[in-house]
Amino acid sequence: MSTEYDNTSLGDISVNNEVIKNISLKAATEVDEVHAIPQGRMGKLWNALTKKGPAGGVKLEFTDSTEVIITLRLMIKYGANIPDAAAAVQENVKKRVEHMTGLTVSEVVVKIIGMCAGEKMPLNEDLKSE
Fold it and tell me: Which residues make Cβ contacts (< 8 Å) with residue 73, sequence separation at least 6?
């Protein structure tokens, strides 16, 4: 599914919803305490169980053609202040998506689904057991 923009004199413009999801996920993980669901073996298992793709932790709900509600399912680092980190995610996601797509983000819903210890987990590499 794609978001359609007004036609320009040079032709149509559309942005695939997966692009908007990926912008949202990248913006969320720019907050130090926040982790995406990893895309290594563990992430592949999660995606298989939930039947979702790499940006499966992001849901878009369009209230009209230019306004969107974004819901993110994220993990947080142990010891982080959850309300502060979630608020930082909301602000950063709204700012990035609106700047890059021209859409209006009416709401950013953050659902913390897990906790992890240590450094950020790689998004596209297999997790190594120690």
Answer: 37, 57, 58, 111, 113
